[in-house]
Amino acid sequence: NGDKAAFETLRKAGKSVVLCVNKVETDSDRATVHDFHALGLGEPFAISALHGHGVGDLLDIVVEGFPRIAK
Q: Does pTM surpass 0.85?
């Protein structure tokens, strides 16, 4: 499976990964987010891009990983 190969490549790269799971609109959707733990890429971060839920928090997490530039 191509997805599994991509996840394995990410794991082997040793880089920081933000695992984002989209389309989490309901409680039953939220329950499936934990299935993504099996990928071994860290804590999955649930969002709903359609409703904007979690998107701002996701951006904060991603930006934290950017290198700091001295002024």
A: no
Contact 14, 26 (CB under 8 A): no
Rounded Cα gap, residues 38 and 45, in angstroms:
14
pLDDT tens string 34-56: 888 888 888 899 999 999 999 99
Do 18 and 61 meet the contact criterion of CB atoms below 8 Å apart? yes
Query: What is d(CA 27, CA 50) in angstroms, rounded to the nearest whole number?
Result: 16
Query: What string of H, E and C letters represents the secondary structure of 34-52?
Result: HHHHHHCCCCCEECECCCC
